[in-house]
Amino acid sequence: MLINNAGIVSGKGILENSNEMMMRTFEVNTISHLHLIREFLPAMIANKKGHIVSIASLAGVVASPNLADYSASKFGAVAIDESLRTEMIRKGMNGFIKTTCICPFFINTGMFNGAKRNLVMNILD
After folding, report:
1. What is the DSSP letter of 124?
2. What is the structure's pLDDT at 63?
3. Active centre residues (catalytic)
């Protein structure tokens, strides 16, 4: 089982965020999923057994102010999961290789301090 659970967030608006931070957000929240899947999927296919879990975010489904890079990167994680699932179906591996995408709401971990003042709903404790 592979659990892709990395995540960072700046909580800054598009004009306030740096290019470096936006790129880092995508590297951690999206691109890392692809690298790890490429590392572990061949053995899962060979063993005809495996499960890849992607921890995305509700922000990957419904965007919020000051979270454009985070939301886009987590939508990328959702899209990777959907694409991988379709690939496994087409290869006839969907009975052996499972995928799950989890999209939790914002949880009070300190990650969303810069964004919480603009959210419609409260962050969960």
Report:
1. B
2. 81
3. 70
| Placement of tokens 């691109």 in the chain | 31
List, for residues 20-74, the tens digit of each pLDDT value: 999 999 999 999 999 999 999 999 999 999 999 999 998 888 887 888 999 999 9
What pTM, to 2 d.p., does this model score?
0.83
Q: Is residue 77 within 8 Å of residue 4, measured between CB atoms?
A: yes
C-alpha 78/C-alpha 97 separation (Å) is: 17
**What's the gap between Cα 26 and its chain centre?**
9
What is d(CA 89, CA 108) in angstroms, rounded to the nearest whole number?
37
Per-residue b or e along 25-50, where b marks 16 or more CB atoms closer than 10 Å to that residue's CB: bbeebbebbeebbeeebeebeeeeeb
Alpha helices in the chain (DSSP H): 19-26, 32-47, 68-90
Closest CA to 93 of 49, 39, 38: 49
